[in-house]
Amino acid sequence: MQALLAFFFIVVILFAAIVFVIALLGASFLLRALNLLFSPFKRKAGTKGVVMGADGEPVIDVMVKDPVCGLYLPKGDAVRETIGGRTLYFCSQECLSQYKQRA
User: What is the pLDDT of residue 27?
Assistant: First the structure.
């Protein structure tokens, strides 16, 4: 019976110490810790349809694949051409010319 009371006493003391530490650090500490844990899953306002990078910032340039040579390159660096109602992206004018010759 004394062992059970001693165990209960230790549990109560540990719980009180945890509560004291939380009160000492403040609720803002806990909120910051939770924010750090869950920030990768948050979505920024107004980012519907925007690709987000691992750092949480929007990706300005996405990668596209050249249909001729299969090279992936940033969309902003690609040669853009609308063919048959589809917008295609090529790594160079040469690949664009080859694609038009095949079609």
Answer: 64
Query: At 16, which amino acid appears?
Result: A
SS3 content of the chain, % helix, strand, coil (to 5): 50, 15, 30
In order of 13, 50, 63, 91, the CA distances from 75 in angstroms are 61, 14, 6, 9
pLDDT digits (tens, 9 = 90+) for 43-73: 555 555 666 666 777 767 788 999 999 999 9
Q: Which helix (H) or strand (E) holds 97?
A: helix 93-102
Q: DSSP 3-state assignment of 53?
A: coil
Axis-axis angle for helices 27-38, 2-25 (nearest 10): 80
Q: Residue ranges of the domains in the chain? A: 2-41, 63-102
Residue 94, H or E segment: helix 93-102
Contacts of 100 (CB under 8 A, 6+ apart): 83
